[in-house]
Amino acid sequence: MLKGEKVVLRALQEEDFEAWYRMNDDVDLTLSGTGRWVPVSIDIARERWQYLLHSSPEVRVNFGIEVADEFIGMLSIKEIDRHNQHALLSIALSGPVHIGRGYGRDALRVVLRWAFQIHNLHRIELETWATNERALRAYRAAGFVEEGRLRDAVWLDGQFVDVVIMSAIRPEWLQNDQVATLKAHAL
């Protein structure tokens, strides 16, 4: 279990399935994340859930995001490449009641500390839509830097939208994290 200021990151548990299923069945939430939504039977969803629960930690690590003992989302570090020390990140919160409260930002900071200081990764990459301003602010606040864009790469809500590619690199993150730690101790 990893503790942040607002959230706890922990292993996924079987009892998280119902909340995860509702999260993935929410059209608006899914469209803001992946831009694609199709109805999925509960049986297919259970198969996907079992994959997430039993993924090899050498390639993918899935965290449940918890606030006050409630599962509010999921964060994954995936496509882990130990040789080149990089991985991809994805995060999803379970809806408007949990968005805009700093939970995602806190979860990102906690998982970057885990990835860089405990697992010796060098680079964490993610992608998001250029129209997802809230996510872009949270990613930047956690230490991610925009590297580039794939122009008009996804069809979202009746229009083509750019995909923003961002990354956090360990040396930059460590320097920024040290500054944040020093400021916190100075107060």
CATH topology: Aminopeptidase
Helix content: 25-40%
The stretches of 5 or more residues where confidence is low (pLDDT under 50) are: 182-187
Per CATH, the architecture is 3-Layer(aba) Sandwich
Biggest beta-sheet profile: 8 strands, mixed
Walkthrough of the structure:
- With 187 residues, the protein is an alpha+beta fold.
- It has one domain (2-186): Aminopeptidase (3-Layer(aba) Sandwich).
- The protein has six helices and eight strands; from the N terminus they run E-E-H-H-H-E-E-E-H-E-H-E-E-H.
- The protein has helices spanning 17-25, 27-33, 42-53, 103-118, 133-142, 170-186; strands at residues 2-3, 8-11, 60-67, 70-81, 86-93, 123-129, 145-156, 159-169.
- The longest helix has 17 residues, at 170-186.
- The two termini are 27 Å apart.
- Residues 182-187 have low confidence and may be disordered.
Summarize this structure as a short list of keywords or feature phrases.
34% strand; 6 helices; 187 residues; Aminopeptidase; alpha+beta; single chain; eight-stranded mixed sheet; disordered C terminus
